[in-house]
Amino acid sequence: FQEKIDMSAYPVESIRNFSIIAHVDHGKSTLADRLLEITGTIAKTDRNKQVLDKLQVERERGITVKAQSASLFYNYKGVNYLLNLIDTPGIQAQTVANFYLAFEAQLAIIPVINKIDLKNADPERVEKQIEKLFDIPVNECIRISAKQGTNIDKVLEKVIEKIPPPQCNTTDPLKALVFDSTFDHYRGVVANIAVFGGEIQKGRRIVSAHTNKRYEVNEVGILTPNEQPTHKLYAGQVGYLIAGMKEVTEAQIGDTLFMYKQPVEPLPGFKSAKPMVFAGMYPVDQTEYNNLKSALERLTLNDSSVTVHRDSSLALGAGWRLGFLGLLHMEVFNQRLEQEYNTSVILTAPTVPYKAVLSSAKLIKEY
């Protein structure tokens, strides 16, 4: 029997929600590990484990594929803070674009220069580049080595000082955003939620704005990064919810959950990512079509940046045309299908759509 945590001790003003965003191989997962260690969330014996990278493909390739969240507790200047960290996947070739999106959304941005322990590290040059490219003063950059644990406490202090608390209220009606979901064979769908208003607890009846289906909440809790049941989750907090959803399709990423008979304006959800690389995917044997279809549905719900359109080929039969953010994304998706859903597929050679404007000013689209 697990003692439930009382989350009422963390009012909105002592909550900070943040994520680590950077290019592939910039040490995000190692930094996440150090932050988990310094806040006592994990023991130091787990050194360099990449605790938040749980998938087999993440372990093998040393990359983060699926966003994971963890609630950290940290006492700073005598105040107990709740820091919700979302460890995002490395963003292939789109880090700068994401900086501008964050800047436009007026989010607080904390520049961190990692891997200063490397022989060929040149933090001065990097700081100058950051200043030139992003107009961020050199003295705002924090130089760290996530591997050695250098200056990690400074990152947490900056998160508390620079990031504002969430703009929400516990007295409002319940409004929760589903930002991820996983499937558990025994308990059904586990939905990761960010609570934007009100509070939620076991026994309450909730409704999905996306499907209009009703559910009764069986369990709520926080991720530390393992599931820790709590009595309630309050506005501004991030955690998980289990409510008898049988299919992953019921926990649509970007969906809004509200209390039965207390409808709210749904949250705007997420802007979909734009695929850059396209490939055909077909079952090795057509009798496997339905199994592959259900595996694709489950996996694309966890990775909404993949686009799926039905397709067919004279040689390969019925299949799909999938759109990915890049070649690594395509490889990882294929590997996850094989490892997590035990399916084998035929993947056609990837293509990139392009437009060509001829000198006669005639526009040609090629796929």
UniProtKB/TrEMBL annotation:
GO cellular component: mitochondrion
Entry-linked Pfam families: GTP_EFTU, GTP_EFTU_D2
Domain of life the protein comes from: Eukaryota
Matching InterPro entries: EF-4, EFG_III/V, EFTu-like_2, G_TR_CS, P-loop_NTPase, T_Tr_GTP-bd_dom, Transl_B-barrel_sf
Domain Tr-type G: 13-90
Keywords: GTP-binding, Hydrolase, Nucleotide-binding
UniProt GO molecular function: GTP binding; GTPase activity; mitochondrial ribosome binding
Gene3D superfamilies in alphabetical order: Elongation Factor G (Translational Gtpase), domain 3, P-loop containing nucleotide triphosphate hydrolases, Translation factors
GO biological process, one term: positive regulation of translation
Family: Belongs to the TRAFAC class translation factor GTPase superfamily. Classic translation factor GTPase family. LepA subfamily.
Xref: PANTHER family: TRANSLATION FACTOR GUF1, MITOCHONDRIAL, TRANSLATION FACTOR GUF1-RELATED
Annotated protein name in UniProt: Tr-type G domain-containing protein
